[in-house]
Design a protein that fits this description.
Order of helices and strands: HHEEHEEEE
Number of helices: 3
Radius of gyration: 15 Å
Shape: globular
Largest sheet: 6 strands, mixed
Low-confidence stretches: none
Mean pLDDT: 96
Strand content: 35-45%
Length: about 160
Amino acid sequence: MSSEEAVRPPLPPFTRETALLKVRLAEDGWNSCDPEKVSLAYTLDTRWRNRAEFATSRAEAKAFLTRKWARELDYRLIKELWAFTDNRIAVRYAYEWRDDSGNWFRSYGNENWEFDENGLMANRYASINDMPIQESERKFRWPLGRRPDDHPGLSELGL
């Protein structure tokens, strides 16, 4: 089976448990900062709105992610399930990153996701705000990559 035809469990219709797993898998993928790997979670004709940028294909989403992680250095993300239905999931999230001048930011956002029958994300709508922070205000200090299972989530951190 090619990546274009891949099945990405868990599949809709979602239960609370499978929605939580889908959110964690998305978080883990994005924390890899690997545009190729992350882009495979989306349909070939995925539609995105990310801030004021729009993507209408997996290739455009991959290009977006490549630009994003070239600019947002030392990226660390936490996602939290907000709500779900049969094939849709809403999340809230925060991520910390620095620019190439060493300025730190915490970005807060909400996303609405819609999945096809194979568990690939067909639609992703994101609203995001950036807040400058001092390096000393960082809360996400695990080594780059997957957030450790024992690291607090957004609610536990008061975010």
